[in-house]
Amino acid sequence: MAHSRGHRFMFCDLCGTMLSLKTLQYAECPLCKFKKSAKEVIGKEIHYKVTAEDMRRDLGISHFEGKMEVKDMEINKKCEKCSNTKLKFSTRQMRSADEGQTTFYHCPSCLHTFSEN
Fold first, then answer.
1. Model confidence at 57, in pLDDT bands (50, 70, 90)?
2. Would you list the DSSP string of 14-74?
3. CA separation for the pair 108, 87 (Å, rounded)
4. Cβ count within 10 A of residue 33
């Protein structure tokens, strides 16, 4: 198959809608009924490369350089084991998105860890 640098051969010259190959003689625009000779379309293909940078740009994600530090939050909650009243906690979505997240508690004094749904 011949590779094409452009992609215009796939679209209507009048309205820009993607052409549909109706017969072996022509491709037709489903919107405005413009016809293009099948010889201009048959045997061509488009190829392109998507890089990680392209995906980050399209998704609006900035590239992060460096070390990322995750810190637990602190809460006034009593430890089940040693009764310390300052616990650290983090949350995580452990089940499906329509269910609540799980909260993990960690006691810095006795190192006891427990969770609540």
1. confident
2. TT-PBPEE-SSSEEE-TTT--EEEGGGTTTEE------HHHHHHHHTPPP--S------EE
3. 7
4. 10
| Cα–Cα nearest to 88, from 65, 67, 58, 113 | 113
Q: pLDDT tens, 68-88?
A: 566 678 899 888 899 899 999
Contact 15, 47 (CB under 8 A): no
How many helices (DSSP H) and strands (DSSP E) are in the chain? Answer: 1, 9
Residue 1 is encoded by which pair of tokens? 């198959």
pTM (2 d.p.)? 0.39
33: tokens are 């009924």
**Which pairing describes strands 73-76 and 86-92: parallel, antiparallel, or unpaired?**
antiparallel
